[in-house]
Design brief:
Blueprint (H helix, E strand, L loop, with lengths): L14 H12 L4 H8 L3 H16 L9 H5 L2 H14 L7 E11 L5 H4 L15 E8 L5 E9 L4 H7 L1 H16 L2 E3 L10 E2 L10 H26 L11 H4 L2
Parallel strand pairs: 1-4, 4-5
Antiparallel strand pairs: 1-2, 2-3
Helix pairs in contact: 1-3
């Protein structure tokens, strides 16, 4: 990571310039404008971008997102649970994260470019091609787990169940249950001992309705996280145009 500035793309380009180019692209800047601004060819603009993303932003030394590791860290879980408990007036005393799915727009995958035999599996119910991103966040919108490998047409519940953390929890749920910890999600997910979801068709003014209110109060953290990411990084304002392999990084 610290040696990224030493990698040349054909001419001397400083690490600071490479990061500036990458941040501008992530923020929604046009590669044509960036090419003129920095005096670098459009071909090298994207080469630099992927280099920085792969060697810096995705480097575990820079920021590691490990859902299973989090579930094995009692101190971190207790801290998050305590904050969620405060925000729900004690209703949710063991909540260690809010789960939800986010559809990120991509260009239609192809057989030639991406090796995808069934592009329709990426076509979401919202009317566009995308990848299903499963995220768990803390009380302060810190991402604790993310999985971005699922097709846009895949249901949230299925996507989470088939993800790395979902599979781990299905075998190790007792470790969280013994400590009184659990995640929360919306009604798109199946109710589990480690995943609390709302009551269906709760009648206004009942205890079930009150329960749903506080669950929604906490679960909105993950929706706000998606909103913050989308608002800050303009690259998500239009379909990602990279290869599918690059999109899911």
């Amino acid at each position: 990571m610290v040696n990224i500035h030493r990698v040349s793309t054909g001419s001397i380009v400083s690490g600071e310039t490479k990061i500036a180019i990458s941040l501008r692209l992530l923020a929604g800047g046009s590669y044509l404008d960036i090419s003129v601004l920095f005096g670098i060819s459009t071909r090298h603009i994207f080469r630099i971008f992927h280099e920085v993303v792969n060697q810096w932003f995705l480097d575990d030394h820079f920021m590691r997102i490990d859902g299973i590791g989090y579930c094995m860290d009692d101190n971190r879980m207790e801290n998050v649970a305590g904050k969620f408990c405060e925000e729900s007036n004690g209703v949710f005393a063991g909540c260690i994260g809010a789960l939800d799915g986010w559809l990120v727009k991509i260009k239609k995958p192809s057989v030639k470019r991406d090796g995808v035999q069934n592009p329709g599996s990426y076509y979401s119910s919202k009317g566009f091609y995308g990848v299903n991103v499963q995220d768990i966040v803390s009380h302060d919108k810190m991402i604790l787990y993310r999985n971005i490998l699922h097709h846009g047409a895949e249901h949230d519940s299925t996507a989470f169940k088939n993800g790395l953390l979902g599979k781990w929890l299905s075998k190790n749920w007792q470790s969280l249950n013994d400590k009184g910890f659990y995640f929360i999600g919306d009604s798109a997910y199946a109710l589990k001992s480690f995943l609390i979801t709302p009551f269906d068709n709760a009648i206004h003014g009942t205890s079930e309705d009150n329960f749903n209110f506080f669950l929604s109060l906490l679960r909105i953290k993950v929706e706000c996280t998606f909103g913050d990411i989308d608002l800050r990084w303009g690259i998500f304002w239009r379909p990602l145009s990279f290869t599918l392999a690059q999109n899911v990084k």
